Amino acid sequence: MMYFDERKDLCEVTQMMFDRFNTNAAGGNISVRVSDEHFIMTPTLMSQAKFCRLNPEDILVIDKDANILEGNGKVTREVNMHLAAFETMPDAGAVVHAHPKESMVFASLGLPLPNLCEATQKLGEVKTLDFAPATSPELAYIVRSYLETRVGDMPVATLLHQHGIVVIDKTLRKAYDMLERIEYNAYVNIHAKVFEALGICKVNNNNHYSYNLDE
């Protein structure tokens, strides 16, 4: 089996993402660059049909043209967005697309996600991109156009209007780690706004710390 260890690790991260409500049965997908020519990627319907319980043989090995070299199932229709990210970001090692529970509030409303937490300081505010239908060439184009303004940055994250989130980092574990950090930051933001509305305290996102900006 090609890239067995990498495919096994992707299975573990995919299940973790689903079990911790960082995506839902409506979808989500993950891809990893494993060589100059090859990527591994979760198959279509991984959430709806399998609840993200995947085996290494379910993980697809694809080339730069999205041709399947090995693995069960079909390529997700979001593959164009993933390949656009890898083509645009030379340092990208993994692309995580998900529908996280708290961050979806900001994505659905078309709002940027402010940074309130120490652990997401290096990202700053997470922008919500303009709307395009899920799986469409237009969505891949919008994501690519945004990433072209961020070449050299890592990690990179952006919300997709009414859809979800994309997180890009050098490794799969780093990308998933950042997804969880963003989700906690979204949770804090929502509750901070409730506190502000109740007059308990005013939200202040003037950060006064310098935390772990390299990792």
Give the biggest sheet.
8 strands, mixed
Enumerate the spans where pLDDT stays under 50 for 5 or more consecutive residues: none
Beta-strand portion reads 15-25%
Order of SSEs, N→C?
HEEEEHEHEHEEH
Which structural category do the helix and sheet elements fall into? alpha+beta
CATH class: Alpha Beta
Mean pLDDT: 93
In the sheet with the most strands, the strands line up as: 4-3-2-1-5-8-7-6
| Name of the CATH superfamily | Class II aldolase/adducin N-terminal domain
Query: What's the number of extended β-strand segments?
Result: 8
Give the overall shape, derived from the CA principal axes: globular
CATH topology: L-fuculose-1-phosphate Aldolase
How many helices in DSSP terms? 5
The CATH architecture classification is 3-Layer(aba) Sandwich
Pfam family, one: Aldolase_II
Keywords: Lyase, Metal-binding
Organism: Anaerobacillus alkalidiazotrophicus
GO biological process, one term: pentose catabolic process
Q: What does this 3D model show about the protein?
A:
GO terms for molecular function: aldehyde-lyase activity; metal ion binding. Keywords: Lyase, Metal-binding. The radius of gyration is 17 Å and the shape is globular. The protein has one domain: Class II aldolase/adducin N-terminal domain (L-fuculose-1-phosphate Aldolase, 3-Layer(aba) Sandwich), CATH 3.40.225.10. The model has no long low-confidence stretch (mean pLDDT 93). Strands 4-3-2-1-5-8-7-6 form an 8-stranded mixed β-sheet, with helices on both faces. It has helices spanning 4-19, 79-88, 103-109, 137-147, 172-197, and strands at 29-33, 38-41, 60-63, 68-70, 94-98, 128-129, 156-160, 164-169. The protein is α+β, with helices and mostly antiparallel strands. It has 5 helices and 8 strands.
